[in-house]
Amino acid sequence: MTEALWAPWRLEYVQGGADAEGCIFCAAGADEGYDLVVRRGERAYVVMNLYPYSNGHLMVAPYRHLAGPGDLDEAERAEMWRLLDESVRALTEAMSPHGFNAGINIGRVAGAGVEGHIHLHVVPRWNGDTNFMPVLADVKVMPEHITRTAEKLRAAWPA
Ligand SMILES: [Zn+2]
Protein backbone atom coordinates (compact mmCIF):
# COMPACT_ATOMS: atom_id res chain seq x y z
CA MET A 1 0.00 0.00 0.00
CA THR A 2 2.76 2.42 0.97
CA GLU A 3 4.68 1.31 -2.08
CA ALA A 4 1.78 2.33 -4.26
CA LEU A 5 2.04 5.86 -2.89
CA TRP A 6 5.55 6.18 -4.20
CA ALA A 7 5.38 4.18 -7.41
CA PRO A 8 1.74 4.34 -8.52
CA TRP A 9 2.80 4.13 -12.15
CA ARG A 10 4.58 0.81 -11.93
CA LEU A 11 2.04 -0.82 -14.19
CA GLU A 12 2.86 0.72 -17.52
CA TYR A 13 0.78 -0.28 -20.48
CA VAL A 14 3.56 -2.32 -22.01
CA GLN A 15 6.38 -4.11 -20.27
CA GLY A 16 9.86 -4.11 -21.74
CA GLY A 17 11.21 -1.67 -24.28
CA ALA A 18 14.90 -2.17 -23.50
CA ASP A 19 15.91 -0.88 -26.93
CA ALA A 20 14.41 1.60 -29.34
CA GLU A 21 12.94 -1.25 -31.39
CA GLY A 22 9.54 -2.04 -29.90
CA CYS A 23 9.77 0.86 -27.44
CA ILE A 24 6.32 2.32 -26.77
CA PHE A 25 7.71 5.81 -26.20
CA CYS A 26 9.64 5.80 -29.48
CA ALA A 27 6.52 4.51 -31.23
CA ALA A 28 4.17 7.06 -29.64
CA GLY A 29 6.62 9.87 -30.36
CA ALA A 30 6.95 8.92 -34.02
CA ASP A 31 3.22 8.35 -34.63
CA GLU A 32 1.87 11.77 -35.61
CA GLY A 33 -1.69 10.50 -35.48
CA TYR A 34 -1.55 8.82 -32.08
CA ASP A 35 -4.63 10.10 -30.32
CA LEU A 36 -3.31 9.62 -26.78
CA VAL A 37 -0.57 12.20 -27.36
CA VAL A 38 -1.95 15.43 -25.92
CA ARG A 39 0.96 17.74 -26.73
CA ARG A 40 3.94 17.65 -29.07
CA GLY A 41 6.97 19.82 -28.45
CA GLU A 42 10.11 20.01 -30.56
CA ARG A 43 12.12 17.54 -28.50
CA ALA A 44 9.59 15.99 -26.14
CA TYR A 45 5.88 15.20 -25.97
CA VAL A 46 3.08 14.45 -23.51
CA VAL A 47 1.03 11.23 -23.68
CA MET A 48 -1.78 9.71 -21.61
CA ASN A 49 -0.91 6.60 -19.59
CA LEU A 50 -3.23 3.77 -20.68
CA TYR A 51 -2.97 2.26 -17.19
CA PRO A 52 -3.46 5.43 -15.22
CA TYR A 53 -2.94 5.69 -11.52
CA SER A 54 -5.60 8.35 -11.55
CA ASN A 55 -7.76 9.95 -14.22
CA GLY A 56 -5.58 12.31 -16.26
CA HIS A 57 -2.27 10.51 -15.58
CA LEU A 58 0.20 11.96 -18.10
CA MET A 59 3.75 11.10 -19.09
CA VAL A 60 6.33 13.50 -20.54
CA ALA A 61 8.99 11.82 -22.70
CA PRO A 62 11.75 12.93 -25.06
CA TYR A 63 11.51 11.73 -28.68
CA ARG A 64 14.99 10.26 -28.43
CA HIS A 65 15.45 6.83 -26.83
CA LEU A 66 17.39 7.90 -23.73
CA ALA A 67 17.59 5.92 -20.51
CA GLY A 68 18.46 8.39 -17.77
CA PRO A 69 18.29 12.07 -16.80
CA GLY A 70 21.98 12.44 -17.56
CA ASP A 71 21.45 11.39 -21.18
CA LEU A 72 19.20 14.34 -21.99
CA ASP A 73 20.75 17.39 -23.57
CA GLU A 74 19.99 20.86 -22.21
CA ALA A 75 17.24 21.55 -24.75
CA GLU A 76 15.46 18.28 -23.89
CA ARG A 77 15.71 18.99 -20.17
CA ALA A 78 14.32 22.48 -20.65
CA GLU A 79 11.44 21.27 -22.80
CA MET A 80 10.51 18.39 -20.49
CA TRP A 81 10.38 20.83 -17.59
CA ARG A 82 8.24 23.23 -19.60
CA LEU A 83 5.90 20.37 -20.58
CA LEU A 84 5.63 19.38 -16.92
CA ASP A 85 4.57 22.92 -16.09
CA GLU A 86 2.08 22.98 -18.98
CA SER A 87 0.71 19.56 -18.01
CA VAL A 88 0.00 20.80 -14.49
CA ARG A 89 -1.71 23.88 -15.87
CA ALA A 90 -3.79 21.95 -18.42
CA LEU A 91 -4.84 19.36 -15.83
CA THR A 92 -5.74 22.13 -13.39
CA GLU A 93 -7.85 23.85 -16.02
CA ALA A 94 -9.57 20.68 -17.25
CA MET A 95 -9.95 18.58 -14.11
CA SER A 96 -9.42 20.79 -11.04
CA PRO A 97 -7.23 18.36 -9.06
CA HIS A 98 -6.20 19.24 -5.51
CA GLY A 99 -2.54 18.34 -6.04
CA PHE A 100 -0.06 16.39 -8.15
CA ASN A 101 2.60 13.73 -7.98
CA ALA A 102 5.37 14.15 -10.54
CA GLY A 103 8.30 11.81 -10.78
CA ILE A 104 10.61 9.49 -12.64
CA ASN A 105 11.13 5.82 -11.84
CA ILE A 106 14.70 4.83 -12.61
CA GLY A 107 15.27 1.09 -12.68
CA ARG A 108 12.82 -1.78 -12.32
CA VAL A 109 13.19 -1.90 -8.54
CA ALA A 110 11.87 1.66 -8.45
CA GLY A 111 8.82 0.65 -10.43
CA ALA A 112 9.90 1.52 -13.96
CA GLY A 113 7.81 -0.50 -16.44
CA VAL A 114 9.77 0.81 -19.41
CA GLU A 115 13.38 1.20 -18.37
CA GLY A 116 15.11 2.17 -21.60
CA HIS A 117 13.22 5.38 -22.37
CA ILE A 118 13.01 8.00 -19.65
CA HIS A 119 9.58 9.45 -18.92
CA LEU A 120 8.24 11.81 -16.32
CA HIS A 121 4.91 10.92 -14.72
CA VAL A 122 2.43 13.66 -13.90
CA VAL A 123 -0.39 12.32 -11.74
CA PRO A 124 -3.26 14.56 -10.65
CA ARG A 125 -4.50 13.88 -7.12
CA TRP A 126 -7.74 14.58 -5.34
CA ASN A 127 -8.45 14.74 -1.63
CA GLY A 128 -9.47 11.29 -0.41
CA ASP A 129 -8.22 9.38 -3.45
CA THR A 130 -5.71 7.35 -1.43
CA ASN A 131 -8.23 4.74 -0.38
CA PHE A 132 -9.01 3.46 -3.83
CA MET A 133 -5.51 3.95 -5.22
CA PRO A 134 -4.44 0.29 -5.10
CA VAL A 135 -7.64 -0.71 -6.87
CA LEU A 136 -7.20 1.84 -9.63
CA ALA A 137 -3.63 0.73 -10.21
CA ASP A 138 -4.89 -2.61 -11.48
CA VAL A 139 -7.79 -1.37 -13.51
CA LYS A 140 -7.45 -0.72 -17.19
CA VAL A 141 -9.44 2.32 -18.09
CA MET A 142 -11.36 2.03 -21.32
CA PRO A 143 -9.41 3.58 -24.22
CA GLU A 144 -12.48 5.59 -25.30
CA HIS A 145 -12.57 7.23 -21.91
CA ILE A 146 -8.87 8.08 -22.10
CA THR A 147 -9.33 9.46 -25.59
CA ARG A 148 -12.01 11.80 -24.27
CA THR A 149 -9.71 12.92 -21.47
CA ALA A 150 -6.96 13.53 -24.03
CA GLU A 151 -9.31 15.76 -26.06
CA LYS A 152 -10.25 17.67 -22.94
CA LEU A 153 -6.60 18.26 -22.06
CA ARG A 154 -5.69 19.35 -25.59
CA ALA A 155 -8.47 21.94 -25.38
CA ALA A 156 -7.26 23.11 -21.95
CA TRP A 157 -3.57 23.31 -22.91
CA PRO A 158 -1.98 26.71 -22.15
CA ALA A 159 -1.29 28.73 -25.28
ZN1 LIG B 1 12.34 4.62 -26.85
Explain what you see:
- It contains 5 helices and 5 strands.
- The protein starts with a helix and ends with a helix.
- The chain has a single domain, classed as HIT family, subunit A (2-Layer Sandwich).
- It has 159 residues and is α+β, with helices and mostly antiparallel strands.
- It is globular and about 35 Å long.
- The structure holds zinc ion.
Bound molecules: zinc ion
Number of strands: 5
* CATH topology grouping: HIT family, subunit A
CATH architectural designation = 2-Layer Sandwich
| CATH class category label | Alpha Beta
Radius of gyration: 14 Å
Oligomer: single chain
Can you tell me the residue ranges where pLDDT is under 50 for at least 5 consecutive residues?
Answer: 1-18, 131-136
Summarize the helices and strands and which ones pair or pack.
Blueprint: H1 2-6, H2 24-30, E1 37-40, E2 44-48, E3 58-62, H3 74-95, E4 99-103, E5 120-125, H4 133-137, H5 143-156
Antiparallel strand pairs: 1-2, 2-3, 3-5, 4-5
Bound molecules: zinc ion.
Summarize the structure.
The chain has 159 residues and is of the alpha+beta class. 33% of the residues lie in helices and 16% in strands.
